[in-house]
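Build the 3D complex.
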Amino acid sequence: MTGLCVTGLSHVLPRGEARPEPGCDPTPFLRVRKNRKFMGLQDEMAVVVAGRALQQAGLSADLGADAGLYLCSGYIPFEEADLQQILRWSLDDGRFSMARFAAEAVQRAHPLLTFRCLPNMPAFHISVNFALQGPYVVTYPGAGQLYQALELAAAALLEGRIARALVVGVAHQQNFLVRHHLARLEPPVPPEQVRDAAGCLVLETEAAASARGAVVLLRLGALRLEYDPAAPELAGDASEGLGAAAPLVYLSQACASPQDSPGRAEPLHHEVAGRDGLRARSEWWRG
Amino acid sequence: MSARRHRVVITGMGAVTPIGTTLNELRAGLRAGTSGVGPITLFDPATLATRIAAEVKVPLSELHRCDDAAPGQLPPGAPDLRWALRDRKVSFALEAGRQAMAAATACGSRPEGPGAASVGVGLELFSMEDLAALQRPGFAPPAGAARQGFLQTPADLCARMLSLRHGLSAPPLLLVSACAAGTDALGVAQRLVASGRRGFMLAGGTDSMINPLGVAGFCTLGATSTRNHEPQRASRPFDRRRDGFVLGEGAGMLVLETLDGARRRGATIHAELLGYGCSFDAHGISEPHPEGRGALLAMQAAVRDAGLTPADLDAVNAHGTSTPKNDPVEALALQRLLGARCSAVPVSATKSLIGHLISASGAVEAIAAICGMEGGYVHPTLNLDDPDPACDLDHVPHQARVHAQRYVLSNSFAFGGQNACIVLGRAPA
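Done.
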């Protein structure tokens, strides 16, 4: 065992889930309401899962400088309508025209487009809404890199550099640009597996959780990462469609639906084998 | 998850920048105060408000001295990822990585233990021409490997190509904390080596946003200088007449290993990476906290992590973007950090020479700081003709200053309120 435990855990799968899932409205968690206009779906999902996990952990929304954020953002999302709007005013005889782009498309593009797709924006929105001023790691773009963030969070806790960590994975997958990417892989990610998803866990040392009387949901038994950059481009595993959120969604679903999971005496295992050559495995014991 | 602490040193550096595509060229440019800014040539900026940038002047074909084009250098069966070289930042990273590893292994051996890449990387290249082509009736996207780079080039390939090229067998890190990413990549790498979780790291940052969408995006935000008529005078951090940053491009990669390991194998040590701190502003999406709260937190954390106090700092490589909002806040945070010593600790801004390299900026600026420590000088801040009274620091305007340094603080602050700082120390005797 690592001496680390989970005291808050949540996920959202806002579209197309077979069974009902909680919605994805960040409004209850917004400290600065005017920031809503800057938020894309990835930002909304990140704030929602962070807020719910913190509530479950019994922590306030004022995290301060002794909490850290360890977040993995999925591939940069762009909706086709936004791109078409730019393209429409950039074409000259069917070809991209820089002159038209500069003179017309730039003026007509949605001014907040940039804010809504940048991969570090979910981290910004979590920091501002939960007053998180501590250290961070923002990785990209898949489950393997979520595991990297988790490993760094664990190290920061064990080395005493932070009191608690929010580990967040967020992937806005159902958009033109990400679908384009996932479809061109060989073999492609099956479209029916591609989902928007986010998950968050609150990680603490068991000593800290015990000291504040927090309910322990999971204990981190083991964490292992391996890498082979020369690995052939094989298909990822079945959770590939959830991108960076896959490990956390698995844990959250397992805790929320114990009847679907192994017995309480059995550990939960999660494993990813990414196309990037990164393999990761974690073992968790129920609290 | 060991917390044991090794001293971490830098034994290799590589740089691809607007003022040089070798370390020696960069060093000479820094010392001389050379500007890399000029009119945009990579595409026709037409009537965009900003039509200047700091471009890497050498054609990509010349940069591929490395290179993955030589299949014999790759492990058998390794995927062919050369299509990703379409993206300038991938080429920059490979060349800077090649330089850094060549320098680190010049003594005849590799750093000890399994290595890993840690890369701060910018947004994925998106091609408007490809998007337009997709709309044309009968157009078929390219087949085979080239299809993987059509429309958009995945940014995560950079770390994989570096890993393949240099036999890095430990999991890579890909960091996307925008303008802080390069410094974060170094800081996280330092922690991994210091704790013994990685043997060595090839760490740094790479970026190129000098493309239609990139430049237009910054124009829309009003973030970039529009001093198109005098490009070399456009990047002017801390000057009263600054009007925004100048976009740059490039890469900086450094090899980090333990001091003990470097000594055992007789490697040349350039500097020690002593401390790292990062923080959130938790304030505004595009403006820093007005009192520099997050910046100060990160600087204090880096100094504390280095086992030093602010009184030990001999110089500062500022984030210094040349934007109206950022420079006074950074100056205020430095004033609060340094106290009365504020008027005696030289501060310089590399962006005045090479522009803002976004995700690569922290890594290249760390290299600039190390060059200064090794050479006993602080490079100049160009165009600082009339220092803004709101930015009252010990500036180094126009010309390099001879100044011995043991400890240098290097700052990077990102759009979105992420702040990252490192403390570098002169190479141990």
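Residues 68-72 of chain B have pLDDT under 50 and may be disordered.
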